[in-house]
Design goal:
heterodimer, A: 2 domains, six-stranded mixed beta sheet, five-stranded parallel beta sheet, 11 strands, 19% strand, B: alpha+beta, 60s Ribosomal Protein L30, Chain: A, Phosphoribosyl-aminoimidazole Synthetase, Chain A, domain 2, seven-stranded mixed beta sheet, four-stranded mixed beta sheet, 29% helix
């Protein structure tokens, strides 16, 4: 397929791999922030093409994984109520709360629907005026513009039976939290390309300077990621700590101004909890006062629902890059995609799920005897 | 006969009853009318005097010792989609399950669960589609059943089909026959059925419509067997797609299978749709696609005979059986690195971003 195959070319991948091997002189820990990149790295086996000096650390950029268990409990509670249509992106449905998940709520008779855009949820609200339609607004800066647009549209067209359950998080504060942690071992970052498509990368420039880490805005195809790693290693080896843009075909320094405007109109920056990590100041988005009546947590009085996370799950350490998924004692035994203890085992983008799907057999792979 | 039939309008006049009533399942006159005018007409059943509670199948003269027998149920929504409908699916699904056992389909049964309020015209279109699919696969629908459920208790129509097929050769086709050195052949591009249904169901629009690959595989299988290819195992790649089919075979056979992702054909539109939704085409359902395990020495010849049938016109080799082992499939990814191919826990769910 055009614009895809070019970025999956095995020869070019091999050349990047050789180029990285040529410039690396010592060990480096590089964190890919986004879960989409983690998935691509494991799915395509990108890490197997790297020299042993490079350790890729899987960051917290999976929206499913970092949504607090308390919010999942709020979602399952309100979705079970009669007269509610609860709309969500598909991969939130299997995420376990403390008692249940949205798929089970659906099986138990709750009206839970998968939508592909928050605007579909506004349409469902318009078509069902006697029902309350709630959209599960999770994600990073990438999904924020469309979610903001849904609220904006509902407001403009007077759709009063629509609201959103918000758990929006922001990338730069999470990177700062990781960098300022005493157990952090990150030398460089691959920043999430699609987040930067919306926000640009000016907000990373002070972080690179303050913590002396290179940050490379990187895309999601195998060659993007290899190129991003190459640029990051090159900076590290040369002792530089700049913000560089690998993903030039999608990202401008200032990002998408229209998208930023709609986010600013509807949302304001707030403190947010991250699953497995805890509260990070000024790390998320909530509705501005003028849109508060679209806040499902307030409208349905869900804020009193609180929950503690499973004690055995080490997802916080995994998402901060301190542990690898298979280093968790529960990995593949008490925690599997069928019965996950924590969200990173559920989502496609979760580091634990990616390792389980593609790396479960820890024994060395049998050597190829023939090529077909 | 078939051509005339396919252009025929619904034989139950609109002014009788335009939709299915509970009474159509009640065993009385209306049910009789439904069977006679819709099913008996569409399927070409014998005269009423020759019909019993069971169809009697004459196998004298077929010279066979083994029969294959299978059943499958169909609950697809929407009932009609680009490239097929629930009727063609119900026939091809069972025909293909028989074909995978190396059997030539002989007779099918069909059970309908109809929802009160289903337009009779819709049922007629489905019945005609079943007849047309049965003719294409060279099989007869010989017996059936109809039940009607209350409005709201079904999605229009559910269909069950069961089928008997004859095995007229001595091959043992199944995972137990898979050997190291076998070539893994794939009959065509993957992921079309699942994405056609999803696009239709969710109202997703692409540059051109994605058509389901729904088709009978019996011709391609016959070509293999009749030309003396030593077929070791076959599997049609329905739910769970190519990946699940291969993992199941590798695990039952206790072998290591190596697949080259770049050799697996995926249509550009299907590939684009999967990228947008965050799905992997190797796990998306097919309804006219299968893998065959044959000795590597016969692979080239096997591909050429498979390709004589339109359902396998683009058959390719995608990998081979490497060694006896703990039942894994190793995928050489698009960039040349190797990883495990595993079963999914449930359905693939579209991703957030």
């Amino acid at each position: 397929m055009k614009y895809m195959d070019e970025y999956r070319d095995p020869q070019a991948a091999h050349q990047f791999s050789e180029a990285i091997k040529k410039i690396v002189t010592r060990p480096w820990n590089i964190m890919e922030v986004c879960g989409g990149q983690t998935h691509a790295i494991v799915k395509f086996g990108i890490d197997t093409l790297l020299p042993p000096e490079i350790d890729l650390i899987h960051g917290p950029g999976c929206p499913v994984c970092v949504t607090p268990v308390q919010i999942i409990d709020q979602a399952t509670e309100v979705a079970s109520r009669p007269n509610v249509i609860f709309c969500s992106f598909g991969d939130m449905l299997r995420v376990p709360g403390t008692k249940t998940d949205l798929l089970s709520v659906k099986a138990g008779g709750g009206d839970v629907r998968i939508v592909y855009s928050p605007l579909d949820a506004v349409r469902i609200a318009r078509d069902n005026p006697d029902k309350e339609v709630i959209f599960f607004a999770v994600g990073f800066e990438t999904t924020a513009p469309a979610n903001a647009m849904a609220v904006h549209q509902a407001h403009r067209t007077g759709v009063e039976n629509f609201s959103i359950l918000v758990s929006h998080v922001l990338v730069p504060p999470a990177m700062e939290a990781i960098l300022s942690s005493p157990i952090s071992r990150i030398n460089g970052f691959l920043a999430a390309g699609h987040v930067c498509t919306v926000m640009g990368y000016t907000e990373y420039e002070p972080i690179a300077k303050k913590y002396n880490v290179p940050i490379v805005v990187t895309g999601f195809e195998p060659l993007d990621i290899l190129h991003g790693i190459y640029l990051c290693v090159k900076q590290l080896e040369e002792g530089r700590a700049d913000v560089e843009n690998q993903y030039v075909r999608a990202v401008k320094r200032d990002g998408n101004n229209h998208a930023q405007d709609i986010i600013t109109d509807v949302f304001e920056v707030q403190n947010r909890s991250w699953r497995g990590v805890g509260e990070i100041p000024q790390s998320g988005l909530g509705l501005r006062p003028k849109y508060r009546r679209y806040d499902a947590a307030l409208k349905f009085e869900l804020t009193s629902i609180t929950a503690d996370e499973d004690g055995e799950c080490i997802s916080g350490l995994v998402m901060q890059g301190v542990k690898k998924p298979h280093e968790c004692p529960a990995f593949g035994t008490r925690c599997t995609p069928e019965k996950p203890l924590g969200a990173p085992m559920v989502s496609n983008e979760g580091a634990c799920s990616a390792y389980y799907r593609y790396r479960r057999h820890t024994a060395p792979l049998p050597m190829a005897s023939t090529t077909s | 006969m078939t051509t005339d039939l396919l252009s025929a309008t619904c034989p139950i006049p609109l002014n009788d009853y335009p939709t299915v009533l509970m009474a159509h399942g009640g065993g009385g006159r209306l049910m009789n009318q439904l069977i006679e005018r819709i099913f008996a007409t569409a399927f070409g059943l014998p005269d009423q005097r020759e019909r019993h509670d069971s169809a009697v199948i004459d196998i004298v003269g077929l010279g066979i010792e083994r029969l294959a027998f299978t059943t499958d149920s169909f609950v697809v929504k929407p009932l009609f989609f680009p490239g097929g409908d629930i009727g063609s699916l119900a026939v091809n699904g069972t025909v293909n399950d028989l074909a995978m056992a190396g059997a030539t389909p002989l007779s099918l049964s069909t059970g309908f669960i109809l929802e009160e309020g289903l337009p009779i015209e819709t049922l007629w279109r489905i019945a005609l589609s079943m007849r047309s699919a049965a003719d294409a696969a060279g099989v007869k629908i010989v017996t059936g059943d109809t039940k009607v459920v209350d409005r709201g208790k079904g999605d229009g129509v559910y269909i069950n089909t069961a089928g008997v097929g004859v095995i007229d050769h001595d091959l043992v086709i199944g995972p137990q026959s898979v050997r190291p050195g076998d070539a893994v052949l794939l009959s065509g591009d993957v992921g079309r059925h699942g994405m056609a249904i999803m696009a239709q169901r969710e109202g997703l629009e692409f540059e051109s419509t994605i058509h389901s690959d729904c088709a009978p595989l019996v011709g391609a299988v016959r070509n293999l067997i009749d030309t003396g290819v030593d077929v070791h195992c076959m599997r049609d790649l329905t739910r769970g797609g190519l990946a699940s089919g291969l993992v199941e075979i590798a695990s039952s056979a206790g072998v290591v299978v190596r697949i080259d992702e770049r050799a697996v054909p995926v249509d550009d539109q299907v590939s684009a749709a999967c990228e947008i939704l965050g799905l992997d085409p190797l796990y998306v359902a097919n309804e006219g696609c299968f893998v065959a395990f044959v000795p590597q020495a016969q692979a080239h010849y096997a591909l050429s005979v498979m390709r004589r049938d339109p359902a396998a016109a683009h058959a390719v080799q995608i990998g081979s059986v490497d060694s006896v082992g703990d039942g894994v499939v190793l995928l050489k990814s698009a960039i040349g690195a190797e990883r495990i191919m595993d079963l999914l826990s449930g359905e693939q769910l579209p991703r957030i971003c």
